[in-house]
Amino acid sequence: MDGALSEKLKKIVLMVLDVDGVLTDGKIIIDDLGNESKHFHVRDGHGLKLLMRGGVDVALLTGRTSEVVNHRARELGITTVRQGAKDKAEELAEMLAEKHISHDHVAYMGDDIVDVPAFRMVGFSVAVADAPDYVKTHAVYITEKKGGDGAVREICELILKARGTWDMVTERYGLRTEG
Fold first, then answer.
1. pLDDT tens digit string along 34-72?
2. Within the chain, what is the greatest distance between any pair of CA atoms?
3. CATH 3.40.50.1000 assigned to 3-164
């Protein structure tokens, strides 16, 4: 990891994630009764738990509204969830003001054109591998993994390793990779 990237990552105290296309593969399943379901990758969820254990807060910011998102957030212990966001930059600005966090201490991960204004507001913007090229050009970092397929875990590990907290959060598993 290069020095400039590492310096950006060391500052991160809040990770804000879009949901559809980032925590999920972007597909929304709606049955005949109108019940919605989404596919979440278990390793992404565990990565977020590790990130929180390492001292980084996590928030969800999505344009859609879904009880599935609330349920997943509760499972993971994520308490800041903003749904139905028509203007993600505005919602993000409000969130940061409420949390008293400077923009350069925030990572934002998205996958589509609606995320670009939020990319411009943070210290570390991330696009998933399968985001459109015109979105990727606005991100500081592009994941190797696709949205809903380990991209979130990839960034969680990157942040933890840059902050020097990877060994601490993985100690219970007998895994040591730093040093």
1. 999 999 999 999 999 999 999 999 999 999 999 999 999
2. 54
3. yes
